[in-house]
Amino acid sequence: MDFASNFSDQLNVGLILPEGIIIATLLIVLIADLIVGRNRSRGLPYIAIGGLLLSVVALYFQWNPENPIALLGSFSGDDLSIVFRSIIALSTAVTILMSIRYVEQSGSALSEFIAIMLTATVGAMFLSGANELVMIFLSLETLSISSYLMTGYTKRDSRSNEAALKYLLIGAASSAIFLYGSSLLYGLSGGETRLPEIASGIAQIEGGELASAIALVFMIAGIAFKISAVPFHQWTPDVYEGSPTPVVAFLSVGSKAAGFALAIRLLVVTFPFEEPQWRLIFTALAILSMILGNAVALAQTSMKRLLAYSSIGQAGFVMIGMVAATEAGYASMIFYLLVYLFMNLGAFTGLILFSLRTGTDQITEYAGLYQKDPLLTLGLSICLLSLGGIPPLAGFFGKIYLFWAGWQAGLSGLVIIGLIASVISIYYYIRVVKMMVVKEPHEMSDTVRNYPAVNWKLPGMRPLQVGLVLSLVVTSLAGILSNPLFTIANSSIANTPVLQKASLIEEEVQDKQVSLAEPKTPAIVD
Question: Which phi and psi (to 5°) does residue 103 adopt?
């Protein structure tokens, strides 16, 4: 009886109830599609959205759990993972809203697309709380393989096939690199797979610094690929341009959030004594991402490629909180990702609407759009200005929080580079807004001049309208009413045991370094 009770406590399967809800929703979508047929499956996207929202509700009721460890120590359901899993579930719900019309118009099966996206969501959510190497790799591959399938989902489009092939080849290489780093950790720790035990095993080895550093570099390389950090960003522009736009929207928010969740947990728990090394690496990644992402975006003529390089630059901003490695730094990352969810998905919703109505995503074709489609112009303008950090929108407060956390951590140089990069980003965002709003009637592009009449009654257009309005409202109000989001971000860090333990370890390391640096007073012999 005691064994059964202890085993049940160690499994603690209640913590993965949100993932269980999404898996059940996935099965319902697949079975219902087989029963009702493709032509009568218009309600399935709303079933999927309902399951995702129910999963978020379940996450809300799991806040600050007494026992955050589940599945024999391989999964952590602490508040840090709850916030990241909520971001991923919400991003998928908004993405499904914007994908209904897009996928149907491409001639592909919508139910299968939703099933693959829900599978990717489950992988990303498990990755956010994974506390063991096998769980991390399985979750990472579930997310990655589903992303490859979604990237090439429009099989009749040669650009989509090319993007899927590039993504598959580069993604397989990054997975191999990450797996090699994991195998090094397994060997160094004496056969341990759980992250806390790996950290303890590495700390007891004498002369293992070089092997530990190699493992650290390999694992950061795998994470950098997932978050599109320079120089591991080569796949991003081509994949973003060739993939179906809803897939790009999910990759830019859901997949990126899972990558940052993995980075925090893996580095803080497994490499507490190598913190100076991984902070230095992320400093270089942040600087390169902010400079290259925003500088190259200036020269783009396609909105998809512009948002691709924009996402690279945004990853650089978020990494400032990672480099700070303080409670304020981690909280600023969470806050920024919460607001980034809506302003970035709002921008992609506007892009989908324009491309569905005109068949193009060239920036010059947006000239004079406000005269034909005021709602689309307003929504896209607000989301782009928020991405640039214009007050009083949500993106402004997100960047202020990131820069303040970096400044408090002594990263003045990195913050100054971030400010310069942010000013550069404002230029190319405002260029698009100016193209839509300021152009005179005679300067209107031929595409906008032949713009079809706005009709929201077409199948799948209402969800797009809801997604655009929702993103517009949240992006506008989240900046003014940002205190609840600040509270959620700060509480998630303060209530996460591994981050508190890491801060104690850091203080111990600093105390040891100070004691070693102090001169020893020679003993007086009588």
Answer: -70, -40
DSSP code string of 230-282:
TTS-THHHHHHHHS-HHHHHHIIIIIHHHHHHHHHHHHHHH-STTHHHHHHHH
Whether 335 and 398 have beta carbons less than 8 Å apart is answered as yes
216/161 Cα distance (integer angstroms): 34
Over 70: is that where the pLDDT of 368 sits? yes
Q: Is 192 strand, coil or helix?
A: coil
Instruction: Considering only CA atoms, give the Rg of the chain.
Output: 24
Q: Rounded CA gap, 296 and 9, in Å?
A: 52
Return the structure tokens found at 73: 């120590």
At position 13, the amino acid (one-letter code) is V
∠ CA 137-141-144 to the nearest 5 degrees?
Answer: 140
Is 409 in contact with 447 (CB distance < 8 Å)?
no
Torsion sign, CA atoms 171, 287, 213, 258: negative
Distance CA 312, CA 289 (A): 6
Burial tier of 388 (Cβ tally within 10 Å: 0-12, 13-18, 19+) = buried
Distance CA 218, CA 119 (A): 26
Question: Which of 12-26, 315-329, 506-520 has the weakest average pLDDT?
Answer: 506-520
Would you state the pLDDT for residue 5? 60
What's the length of the chain? 526
pTM of the model: 0.91
**Distances 84 to 59, 88, 230, 256, 335 between C-alpha atoms, Å:** 10, 6, 23, 10, 10
Instruction: Please name the residue that has the structure tokens 């650290």.
Output: 216
Looking at this protein, which amino acid is placed at residue 310?
S
The first and second tokens of residue 363, run together, are 């920036």
The per-residue DSSP string of 312-356 comes to: HHHHHHHHHHHHH-SHHHHHHHHHHHHHHHHHHHHHHHHHHHHHH
Q: What angle separates helix 79-106 from helix 461-480, to the nearest 10 degrees?
A: 150
Between CA 398 and CA 6 the distance in angstroms is 43
Least confident of 303-317, 366-380, 409-423, 446-460: 446-460
Q: Which helix (H) or strand (E) holds 116?
A: helix 110-129
Contact 295, 252 (CB under 8 A): no
> What secondary structure, in 3-state letters, does 446-478 show?
HHHHCCCCCCCCCCCHHHHHHHHHHHHHHHHHH
Q: Which helix (H) or strand (E) holds 62?
A: none
DSSP 8-state code for residue 203: H
Distance CA 419, CA 293 (A): 14
The model's pLDDT over 252-268, given as tens digits with 9 standing for 90+, comes to 898 899 999 999 999 99
